[in-house]
Amino acid sequence: MTVAARPATYREVFAEPSFRTLFAARTFAISATSLQIFALSVLVYTTTESPLLSAVAFGAGFLPQFAGGLLLGSLTDRLRPRPLIVTGYAVEAVLSVVLGLADLPVGVTLALVAAIACFTPVFNGAAAKVIAERLTGDAYVLGRAVSSMSSSFAQLLGLAGGGVAVAALGPRHALLLAAALFLAAAVIVQFFLPATPTPPGAPIRAAGSRNAVRDSWTGATAMLADPAIRRLLLAQWLPSALVVGAEALLIAYSADRGLPPGAGAVLMAGPAVGMLLGDLIVGRFVRPIWRERLSGPLVLLLGAPLLLLPANPPLPVTAALLVLSGTGFAYSLGLQRAFLEAAPEHRVGQLFALLSTGLMALQGVGPLLSGALAELTTPATAIACAGAATMLVAMTTRKPR
Q1: What angle do CA 106, 72, 70 make, to 5 degrees?
Q2: Same domain, yes or no, for 141 and 29?
Q3: What 3-state class would DSSP assign to 400?
């Protein structure tokens, strides 16, 4: 893949049937996931009245993905993508139905969520692989930008809709609504995703090891040992984890400052709005060669505004700083061409599964570390430290000479 002379257009991206289908299905699925997480957290809290268990329910689907990505990632290159993706959405739908209808002990509920989460990187990796195969050149990078924008919007929609659904229907019926959304995603993929032909020679290499776990572990360790791949993975993992850790403290930051009720929600929306704006501007209007050169400066932009929050600026200024920080998430668009080029032949899907694994796992660890630091200092100090650490890891985006 060479650097394109001009940015791709949305028309070029959406002209690809596979992308259109996966875009629609992913929007349904992410909304369903956000709704499921919110409703499950409320259900666990109302059952146990334990803030800790409610928080564990919120994050139960993140850390198990680490094990799944490492030990099952090769399945993305062994199995046909359409049935794999459909199975993933269908299993999530069944899980939501079980959680909504069955009166299970909290421990069993969390164990089920964790078990299904182990397979999430496999399903996500299969979808990412299809997009990488069907979109070429800068259309692929813009497709990633559009996917990121839709993810942000769907998460906001799912969380907002989750609050309404839980208030109107109760958490159990809200889980059934999430199941319906997952089922809609499965139906869309089953009937509208074109069949993907298997590349010549791929089945032979994929079948070389009958043990999927051993093959997954071998592939993951080999890719992590590759300096170029490791650098590109860390460049996408670390800034995201650090900033998500800072975002997790915004409610505490708002309360610590004595801001008006509801200010915390306004502040939490800031990074998501900034991400939408950054992906739109950088993905569509910045020339590809400059997009790649701007990866490092955008990571600096991601962290720098957070350094100002301990100064307690007025609420509108604080919100604007968080929007500005969120635009820095567009740095990852400049890494996509190199990332795809670095993928080993016949392990493209597993590399995307590994990327998803690290993102989810570290986004689960980031809030824990930031929260621990906030307990020792203050939320504002912990947020500023996360911003400073983000700026320090900007060097991971630089390509070695």
Answers
A1: 90
A2: yes
A3: coil
Distant-in-sequence, close-in-space partners of 194: CB < 8 Å, separation ≥ 6: 17, 18, 21
| Residue in this structure with the two tokens 């930008």, named with its chain if needed | 145
Please write the tens of the pLDDT for every residue from 15-48.
999 999 999 999 899 889 888 887 887 888 788 8
**What are the distances in angstroms from CA 96 to CA 186, 238, 378?**
14, 31, 37
Query: Does the pLDDT value for residue 202 go beyond 70?
Result: no
Q: Token digits for 366?
A: 């980031």
Query: 152, 105 in Cβ contact below 8 A?
Result: no
CA–CA gap between residue 189 and residue 25 (Å, rounded): 7
Closest residue by Cα to residue 96 from 175, 181, 185: 175
CA atoms of 93 and 113, how far apart (whole Å): 12
> DSSP label at 347?
-
DSSP letter string, 102-127: ----HHHHHHHHHHHHTTHHHHHHHH
Q: Which pTM does this prediction carry?
A: 0.75
Looking at 192, 207, 242, the residue that finishes a domain is: 192
Residue 218 lies in a domain: no
Total domain count, the chain: 2
Token pair for 350: 């597993």
Domain of 95, CATH number, reads 1.20.1250.20
Asked if the structure places residue 200 within a domain, the reply is no
For residue 288, give its domain range.
225-401
Which two structure tokens, joined as six digits, stand for 377? 């200092």
Output the CA–CA distances (angstroms, integers) from residue 364 to 1, 60, 79, 299, 336, in the order listed: 33, 9, 29, 20, 23
Q: Is 74 found in the same domain as 168?
A: yes
Please give the helix or strand (H or E) that residue 198 lies within, else none. Answer: none
